[in-house]
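May I ask you for just one protein sequence along with its backbone structure tokens in two labelled lines?

_____
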Amino acid sequence: MTHLDIAVDGTTVTLGNPAKVLYPSTGTTKQDVALYYLQVAPVLIPWARDRPATRKRWVDGVGTDADPGKSFFQKNLDAGTPGWVLRRTMHHKDHDNSYPLVNDARTLVWLAQISALEIHVPQWTFGAGGTPQRPDRLVLDLDPGEGVGLAGCAAVALLARDCLDRHGLDSLPVTSGSKGVHLYAPLDGQATSEEVAALAHEVALSLEHDHPELVVSRMGRDLRRGKVFIDWSQNWPAKTTVVPYSLRGRFRPTVAAPRTWDEIVPGELAQLDYRQVLARVTNGIIPVIPIGGHQ
């Protein structure tokens, strides 16, 4: 089969070379990726809606440990983008970029078609007139240093939850599909990105002060050994974080997966792959707090 037509949102999206293997270790194909994104669209889109989407693409697949595939980030839309893909233009220092908005299922299928396995978005949305709004969520990226695994991230996530609680912020954990854990907290949209980044930095500094054996808030890699780095900087307006329910370009098709706090148990927590996430969604295990499009 050289192509597969998928009808979605009143549009036919053509998938070229649907049998192309994008994850050799599991035999996961482009068609598998497209169908995954189609099935999780109702739960992914609320996290991505009205946000400029940066794509990380593996045109020839992720490869293997011995022969990793090449990837690249893409911000600007190219000439081959279907006209029905919603988009917004952003001005950067010396140029403008046109970004897609992941507001519908057909766009997710199109992203699979171009082997955009990962979708990254900022913590703010565009307003009705295309103007960037103030952030509607705060994110902490818990990144394990050398010698620390997911168990260490789980332990720090529990401490960070308590700290955010003291600031009056509910939080939701997301296993990143890579090495660590992301924590999201909803905001009322009144604070600027600078103010939100300052709050996130304050939380990271507080945790580092109280738990210096576990936590570091500074970026130097030599400081991270044996500790969990809390990356608070992803709250700056130019920074992006992989969207929950996005696939990751790892050798296994893992996913940035929202979790319940009951699952955040050091020593028991594991990253989830796309089949596990599909089973969770099918069974109604869809952890959520009111963030952005979530109601």
